Amino acid sequence: MVPKRAVGWWAFGLSVAGIAAWVILPVITTVFRESYPITDTAFMPIIGVALVDAAAIFNALDLFLWKERSVLNIVAAAITIPAALFLTLTFVGEGIGGV
Questions:
Q1: Is residue 66 classed exposed, middle or buried when 0-12, 13-18 and 19+ CB atoms within 10 A define those classes?
Q2: Residue 16's Cα: distance from chain center in Å?
Q3: How far is CA 10 from the centre of its chain?
Q4: Whole-structure pTM value
Q5: Rounded to whole angstroms, how far apart are CA atoms 85 and 36?
Q6: Which member of 3, 58, 62, 97 has the greatest number of CB atoms within 10 A?
């Protein structure tokens, strides 16, 4: 049910942090848009994409290389890996398209 090794807990924690970043970063942007103009640029989505990509890579390594087969890690990977693919492709596509 839960990870047996520390690497499994790290993968789960990174998944939670990566997905939570997409809730927290827009709030930070909304609150501090006037005070800190850098929050209204592409800087915040870059942080979000980097966190979700790191979590997805770590979860994939955790499942396939380190053989951690707990329910938490499988669910975290099932959520994080597709989210990373979607967000990365969307962000890169918008960057290429000039949006």
A1: middle
A2: 8
A3: 13
A4: 0.90
A5: 30
A6: 62
